[in-house]
Amino acid sequence: MYVLTGYPLNNKVTFSLPSDENFKKQDSLSWEVRYRFFHTEPDSTVMAVMAMQIVYNNDSVVSAIKKVVASGKESVGLKSDSLDIKEIRGFIYSPKRDTLEKGLLLLDSIVLMRYHHTNDTIPGIETEKEDIRESKILAGLLQPVDSFFPEIADIWVGDIRNIEIAELTCMNLFQHLPYAPAKSFQWIADEREYVQTCGFLTIARLLSQKGDMTERTSDEFLDQALCAVHSDKYHVRNAAILAIRKFVAHSEANAFLVCRLTEGWAESKREIEQALYNAVKEEVENLSEQTPLIE
């Protein structure tokens, strides 16, 4: 749900959705949004502009645009050409009005749906899964962080059920939250697979941005991460290793600390411990080839 006031810092909603292998030539796209203007009668002076674009790999573009002047559900649609799709873009723009009352616009029930030109799966089933996937990706892209409270984040992360959505949501939303450091530490202590995975993925992105941790925080992180490396959950293990790699890459002090904790793992009988040792070694060599910490 979004509320636009019409003022410069709050007069639009935008999204950009990169293409992947699930996009096919000649796909049809439909973007639907429910609008609620805070005035009782239709008024042509109070309107929003809704637009969507398909950008192809050769940078050509097709667009659809609509003016919205009344409350209710509205949609724009596009059918792609035989070219490969590069990305999908869209925006809703509602400029400032004469009065605050007329300027308020509520947006909700936002859905982006894609329809394949030919159906090569069981009718309805795969298409529905694709639509749900894209709606979740779009929601993560559009969600404003200033109104995304910690309680909502807990509900959101608890609803994630696959690694692609986990990775994209951490990239597009979770890492930008003002409370991301504290919340990610709560999540890595959770027993649910994707909650824990999102915790480590978010920490990995925060480490790439800042990298700074207090000694106490570093100890807590490494304790949780090294335990997670031995988890029986595949995505948790991978996310924990990624976070450790980002921690090591930040400084030689961090690298030295992790090397001490994983000393002897090169000869471990556990394959995952050997994998972590090799990952750490690679990061150390990238960090400082002149003075390697692991021989």
From TrEMBL:
Matching InterPro entries: ARM-type_fold
Name of the molecule in the record: Uncharacterized protein
